[in-house]
């Protein structure tokens, strides 16, 4: 699969994570009184990570190998690290609000890294000898 397609997929998956971060509390708030299965939420986060991490990792590494802009990979890894906070259990330490904010920021940062990776693709042809 071409790197550009992987970047588009990675960006879309990050967008789904952002949607989950922002819409999840709203849905739970509307369903006040509904029991929340925290084990199911952890499973959902783990399942999303199993999709996002390999796609984003492959796309960003392949892109950086071509355009040689390591800062794109650094931004992507930082975004992934923030997105993986719920799985790492940091939400319990930070509280739901700050963890939600950082996770949403991670999703945006990862989407930006994928977009940046796609924008640098035209430079690939210019940078080759």
TrEMBL record:
InterPro entries: Mercury-R_MerC. The chain crosses the membrane at residues 43-64, 71-88, 94-113. It comes from the Bacteria. Keywords: Membrane, Transmembrane, Transmembrane helix. This is MerC domain-containing protein.
């Amino acid at each position: 699969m071409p790197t550009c397609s992987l970047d588009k997929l990675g960006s879309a998956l990050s967008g789904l994570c952002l949607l989950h971060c922002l819409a999840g509390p709203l849905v739970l708030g509307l369903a006040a009184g509904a029991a929340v299965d925290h084990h199911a939420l952890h499973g959902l986060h783990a399942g999303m990570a199993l999709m996002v991490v390999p796609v984003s990792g492959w796309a960003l590494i392949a892109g950086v190998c071509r355009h040689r802009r390591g800062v794109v990979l650094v931004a992507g890894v930082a975004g992934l690290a923030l997105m993986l906070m719920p799985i790492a259990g940091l939400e319990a330490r930070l509280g739901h609000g700050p963890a939600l904010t950082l996770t949403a920021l991670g999703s945006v940062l990862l989407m930006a890294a994928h977009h940046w990776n796609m924008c640098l693709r035209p430079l690939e042809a210019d940078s080759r000898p």
